[in-house]
Amino acid sequence: MQTIGERLEEARKRKGISIREAAEATKIRSDYLHKLESNSFDLNLPEIYIRGFLQNYANYLKLNAEKILADYKTLAPNEGRASRRDNREIYGRMDLVKTGHPAPEAAAPAVPPEAPVAAPAPARPAFPASAGTGGPAIDPALLFKGGVAVVALLLILAIVFGIRAISGGSARPSGEIRAAAQQTITLTARDTVRVKLVQELDGAELFQGTMIKGESHSFPKRGSLLLTATALENVEIDVSGKRQANPYTGYNRVQIP
Predict the structure, then answer these.
(1) Nearest in space to 251 (alpha carbons), one of 29, 10, 68
(2) Confidence band (pLDDT; 50, 70, 90) for 161?
(3) What is the pTM of this model?
(4) Which one of 22, 33, 38, 109 has the fewest CB atoms closer than 10 angstroms to its CB?
(5) How many other CB atoms are found less than 10 A from the CB of residue 90?
(6) Which residues, in sequence order, are CB contacts of 6 under 8 Å at separation 6+?
(7) Distance (Å, rounded) from C-alpha 102 to C-alpha 144?
């Protein structure tokens, strides 16, 4: 009985297709295709990616993808074997920006008011060693200037604290905060596709599974997301009700800011 790699290699050669041509058509790196045809499935990638590569390559060569995946499952029963290496070089990047309602800018950190600067101590007049009575101990001009400086600083502090009290101590409008908290992302399948959605900030997995045609899921969107799909052209992406452009095809991963 032929191995998975032998079937893939024989089908490719029968069609007269080179490894380079197959890599360009499937968007799978040529060294990965060499390993698949050599039955070397240790690609140092998450299991879902290896299965996706096998399915895409089998479909491209007009082989029975379900049979290929079933045979592979008997070789690699421990699904979920993953590498933490961030292999971004094989993925596309798609900057999806919500149209019409730009994301709220981060609030500028409140700057604490400067502490009052004490007026410089007046210089003590130098007395001769043999002097009895000298001049005045404090220069009146210096005392006046120090008092003016202190009053000015107190006035500035009063203005700053008054403005902060009126604005509620936050430069960010509450409407913007509510808008950021209410952002959602909705994924809809145009055809059967396996999808994985991860929150980039903390790596939390929002969804992983197979979606059939017409199936739709919505999730709260807090910051940038990473979307991986076995056939990205089969996924429609909506951010807070706004449809995003999706020019990517095949097995791919994109970033949704």
Answers:
(1) 29
(2) confident
(3) 0.33
(4) 109
(5) 16
(6) 37, 39
(7) 53
